[in-house]
Amino acid sequence: MGAEGEGGGGSSGLTRRRGCTCTKEDFLPEESFRSWSNYANALKETPARLVDRVLTRSSEQGELEVKARSEHDMKKTLNWWDLMWFGMGAVIGAGIFVLTGLEARDEAGPAVVLSYVVSGTSALLSVFCYTEFAIEIPVAGGSFAYLRVELGDFVAFIAAGNILLEYVIGGAAVARSWTSYFATLCNHKPDDFRIQAHNLPDGYNQLDPISIGIIIFVCILAVSSTKGSSRLNYIASVVHIIVIAFIIICGLINANVKNYTPFAPFGVRGIFKASAVLFFAYVGFDAVSTMAEETKNPGRDIPIGLVGSMVITTLIYCLLAVTLCLMTPYKSIDPDAPFSRAFETIGWHWAEYVVAAGALKGMTSVLLVGAVGQARYLTHIARTHMIPPWFAKVDPKTGTPINATVAMLAATAIIAFFTKLAILSDLLSISTLFIFMLVAVALLVRRYYVDGETSTANRNKLVVFIFLILASSGATSVYWAVNEDGWIGYCITVPIWLLSTAGLAFFVPQARKPKLWGVPLVPWLPSSSIAINVFLLGSIDKDSYIRFLIWTAILLVYYFIFGLHASYDTAKAFEVKAKEETVYIMAEAGKDSSADKSATEAAADGIKSVID
């Protein structure tokens, strides 16, 4: 499990200058990049540095310390009501308004409602894990910070790359869907607003300029003010909920129960395959956890905001899925704008425009909350110097990370301009399920392992049980993917998962209790989250895995060339600085009176806890 280590800090290289200038110090301020000879020496030390980064874990105090590298604090302006609406605004968008029709028509039929139940259950289990972390470690880094504390720098970096990919692809998919509903509102087909580039490969040859326009609009809002974004999101979400209520009520008035037969034309496999893709519809709630740094009372506000928004969202999704399949036969569902076209088929032509307008508002909210969340992820990653610290800067006037926001949305715009929705949704689901699985593993490590307190025997038992949980979950997923009719394999893998989780519950004592709010039913709930996330990974197509592996390979190349050395130098510089401060404080303690000495020594102990 490695020793708990640094806060990842050090001299940030973020010095205040007038004007909008950029220098090498903004991007590569670390010692390894001072000269070519330094860089050559750093490359020679790559194996040793990699071992250090793999085995070294950050600390909670260290993650809080790195906030100083943004030059200015983010403003604490959010409460549980804001987080609730941010949660629904982040999630209810392209997933329900576009992918519902696509998956109902091609994969699940009317049983798509069960697909939403499965993916919603997986998302809710992940929400519980995120909530405990967000309360205990209230920083903008979200799952990156949580994984860095519990699983170490290297795992956190791989997760960070996929987190950023998740946000970029998710935003691009929503922006493409925005064009589809905008076309409906204008009484056109989506392709009428796209440019056909015949020389580009299929799936990347429908250029979408409207998606770039909406992303630029969202970027302007996101960099202006977090509280302002919250208010706009609140208004847009209220309108969105009214439109959703309209769809459900008016849709059920025109329901035809015959359309629900057959209920599951593609069988159980189709339901789970659709669940893996529809997990995209729940992506975004983790953006709320990145706002912990801006929350007034994290211990109260985050559980209400995260769990409450997810429960409401799942209920809404199920009602919308039922309504769509009762309104129109699943084979006739339009893949681009299913709800609008459903009202058109029953003769309510005016209603399709109401639905399209509501969908546009919903997807705008998703883009806005996604922009806010992804910028905060990038900001915290940059604070550790895994990527250039220039991205960590927070504007003193707006209190928002402008550099990170613009960079992430620029990448989102490029992907949205070229890439088809079906390609984006599958790749997004892989990244998201992978990250959520890691967060659940990190929660188990957090509860059962504390460096210096957990015995070697208990640590070894923890490693074995977590390995068996992961292995049995993976084996179940692989068996599901390669064997359509078999059942014998499940008789082996499922009992192993049950016994491993039970072994963790009964034979390894918990080493840490949550301070304010904790996940219930540990280890069963996080272990179930691991199992269902890994199982859904078995329902995703091969091409998406190839793209995922290519992206991971790119991340590793960057890490070994730049990220490893930058974060290593930063961590070591922080350790040196912290030790110097400890020595200074202890020296001052010798001069102080006995009344002041205990307070001074307590401060020194706080610094030592970050580096020991």
UniProtKB/TrEMBL annotation:
It is a multi-pass membrane protein. GO terms for molecular function: L-glutamate transmembrane transporter activity; L-lysine transmembrane transporter activity. The keyword Membrane applies. It comes from the Eukaryota. The chain crosses the membrane at residues 83-102, 108-130, 151-175, 209-225, 232-254, 266-285, 306-330, 402-424, 430-450, 462-481, 487-509, 521-540, 546-568. Keywords: Amino-acid transport, Membrane, Transmembrane, Transmembrane helix, Transport. It is found in: Membrane. Residues 517-567 form the Cationic amino acid transporter C-terminal domain. GO terms for cellular component: plasma membrane. Belongs to the amino acid-polyamine-organocation (APC) superfamily. Cationic amino acid transporter (CAT) (TC 2.A.3.3) family. PANTHER family: CATIONIC AMINO ACID TRANSPORTER 1, INNER MEMBRANE TRANSPORTER YGJI-RELATED. This is Cationic amino acid transporter 1.
